[in-house]
Amino acid sequence: MKLIVPELKGLHIISEDWGESLDNFWIQLHADIGTKGKEDVDIFVVYVVSPSRLQGCDIEVGRGLFIMSDFNISLLEQKIKHLLENCKRKTWEETALAINRYAYWDYENYQENS
């Protein structure tokens, strides 16, 4: 049985909010993820936040939330690639839903309403 192998094709900062110090940040990124060997991608949204920023929050939900002491995009890329290794499935839809455990799939609402 052949499985879909997801691949991180790009990671882009969409918005960033830095507090009064370098250890106080909230960053939104788009992860372009597609099937290995193909050009098409879907967008998955992730947020990177510092522990310092979380101290000021009453409540946060964890899906799509990566907590880092220091923002390091290379380290984040490595982590996402590692997570993708566990998201291989029979179809792209199943693969994307597996990735969706860690990030917000751009097409999530479309799939739920289909």
From TrEMBL:
<protein>
    <recommendedName>
        <fullName>Immunity protein 8</fullName>
    </recommendedName>
</protein>
<dbReference type="Pfam" id="PF15586">
    <property type="entry name" value="Imm8"/>
</dbReference>
<dbReference type="InterPro" id="IPR028964">
    <property type="entry name" value="Imm8"/>
</dbReference>
